[in-house]
């Protein structure tokens, strides 16, 4: 692979059309190639059998095609989750998770190698940010999961390692391709984009008016505690974040999900539930309570079940829609907050 070549898995259809016209080829060939690249998930140009051999050779001279390479896979004891370590072309690797639900199968996709947000309860940022993933590298995770399991992925959550809105352009390109008819045709309503609170990017995303679910990692109902748990709060405090979320719901008509990881003695008291209810009053939203998952380096202790139910009850009494997240993959360190940077063994 030459550094001058372009990875066709990184291109949206308009950019594929530019690529093909640059080769002196009819623009409609881009749509044919897109279906091979994104719907059928081929790993070589030789598999594109409705393109001439000469054209395939010309494409190969100017481009390359990333492909999912599974380095390791771990299956949860109950069989409802599989964690993958995907090896990347430069020797780095990312973790992804396949999750089986009653309503369909989901892929939890990473958007960066590492993360620079430094959230206190998350393993992904322990080594800082190494680099962004390209949109094709995100797409490869979904293709790899489908090819390995033989099951269709019908939902995607951008909740793996990294902050999706810190890799905004590639995240949007990934969403464009995976929801397209030439791609996996996953409904935008089945795509969730997670963020710890990058306010300008939330506002930019709202302006796109996409039928996505925005999930905000909140974890605290007031600034002093959130500054500690989610350091980006120092730059974009709760007043700005909640205003952006209210505007997002208003512009898109989509309710915002607030992720709230309950940690014993830190953010799970009754008065904190009351603060949260007041903070979200009147918003089109939903709170997803998550008994915090263990991360050895973080020393986080999950709240007891009784405290989770107490917190949930306070929110419900104040008219806030709330659920407690079903725990998947914790026994293989594949649950919320547990994905991390791991280099593949030689």
TrEMBL record:
Cell location: Cytoplasm
Listed InterPro entries: Aldolase_TIM, Methyltransferase_A, RlmN_N, RNA_MTrfase_RlmN, rRNA_lsu_MTrfase_RlmN/Cfr, rSAM, rSAM_sf
Naturally occurring in which organism (per UniProt): Pelotomaculum schinkii
Binding positions for S-adenosyl-L-methionine per the UniProt entry: 162-163, 194, 217-219, 293
Protein name: Probable dual-specificity RNA methyltransferase RlmN
Active site feature: 95, 336
Entry note: cofactor: Binds 1 [4Fe-4S] cluster. The cluster is coordinated with 3 cysteines and an exchangeable S-adenosyl-L-methionine.
Further remark: Reaction proceeds by a ping-pong mechanism involving intermediate methylation of a conserved cysteine residue.
Domain Radical SAM core: 101-331
Keyword Lyase: no
Keyword Transcription annotated: no
